[in-house]
What we know:
Elements: H1 11-38, H2 55-78, H3 84-99, H4 101-111, H5 123-149, H6 152-181, H7 186-214, H8 223-239
Amino acid sequence: xxxxxxxxxxxxxxxxxxxxxxxxxxxxxxxxxxxxxxxxxxxxxxxxxxxxxxxxxxxxxxxxxxxxxxxxxxxxxxxxxxxxxxxxxxxxxxxxxxxxxxxxxxxxxxxxxxxxxxxxxxxxxxxxxxxxxxxxxxxxxxxxxxxxxxxxxxxxxxxxxxxxxxxxxxxxxxxxxxxxxxxxxxxxxxxxxxxxxxxxxxxxxxxxxxxxxxxxxxxxxxxxxxxxxxxxxxxxxxxx
Length: 240
């Protein structure tokens, strides 16, 4: 008897390959960043992941566009318009990265305000934080409404996306604020900048991979469920 084995990889394997390629791309750009500084010595902004309009930033743009397009696929698959609220969020992230909304608006916001900045931060930093928080609250309104009206799958998907966006916020906001406030030496500042921007890149890659996961047949897998099952298992072990 001859058995025929399909050479087509499973959807989960495809997801892993997709995320793996994205993360490899992230590390490649981090490698170019290091090479640009320590080997070539050119300090070219094109290969500097901390500078605007570099190749790494354009890679981020592509990932945000992919996420928005993949969410369109999820809408068609699940026949749920609730995901439009997430498309708006990621398109805002794209626009903010591309045209620096929170930087420019934050600068205008604090330009004529007379106050002494605290915690080692600049007035500009407080303006950027204010714009980011304000925009986040605005974007939360349609999201909360969609979660309230949406399906259980949408709610769990949203919790997972919130978690992954939390990683992005940690690197893009928290680490960034520490980077500014600590006034480190050149080496320390360079390392923290690499962690900040590299962490942002990997976070967006994970988001793209997760949204890709939602387009396929893995509808019963959620990060939230996996975390809760793990937590309950640990709790049961501790009690016993």
